[in-house]
Design goal:
The structure is a single chain. With 220 residues, the chain is of the alpha+beta class. Helix content is 16%, strand content 24%. It contains three helices and eleven strands, in the order H-E-E-E-E-E-E-H-E-E-E-E-E-H. It has helices spanning 2-18, 168-172, 206-219; strands at 79-86, 107-119, 133-136, 141-143, 150-155, 162-164, 173-176, 179-181, 186-187, 196-197, 200-203. A three-stranded antiparallel beta sheet has the order 1-2-5, with no helix packed on it. Strands 4-3-6 form a three-stranded antiparallel beta sheet, with no helix packed on it. The longest helix is centred in the N-terminal third of the chain and has 17 residues, at 2-18.
Amino acid sequence: SKEAQRIAPVLVLLRDALAPHLGIRVILNPRPELKDLPLKSYYRYATPPAQLDAKPRVYFAQLPAHKTLTAHLDVPEMWLVTTAVAAYDLDNLKLEDLPEGQSTMHAEYRIEALLVTGHASEVGAREPPRGTQLQLGSGAGTVVMSNLGYFQLPAAPGAFQLALRPGRSSEIYAISKPVIDLRGGMMTSDNDDEDTAVDEAYEKGEGEEEEEEKDREEEE
């Protein structure tokens, strides 16, 4: 099955890492009859290298030369992965079309970004603040969708502060409590300089907007 195809290399990795302290025993329960081949693809698992500066690699050997193959990555949904190096069309690979004297194909991939996703809703009404603009640190920005208040932003690995983009969005809305910091604790102040994940957003009332206007007049 496809599930067994994916878990098998993980079991091998655990066996090698835990031996001789712990062993793994696999009990097979195959189907007695098959109407069709359950697997129509070749699968390899990229084992994380022991050294941080090394790149994970996989090799495919003894592939059919006359078949048209497609290179496909099985990665977490939140990874944005692109092709970095490829001399051939990875959607239409045919080993018999290689130049004379060449028997291998090489391709490299890289993670461009990680997706940060979430949902936002207005306090009380529980409606999504659709069109509200959010910003992650000083980089990527996005808008809140009308469908369940969903939003997503691409980011590099690290800690960033999620906030409302300056302008109309920050004038109408404010991030409301409770929010959760990266350490898992509840924050009790809207002014804490912490990296946070948005839980809810509330719309500023007329009284709050008037007070802000008075504060600006007094400052002027």
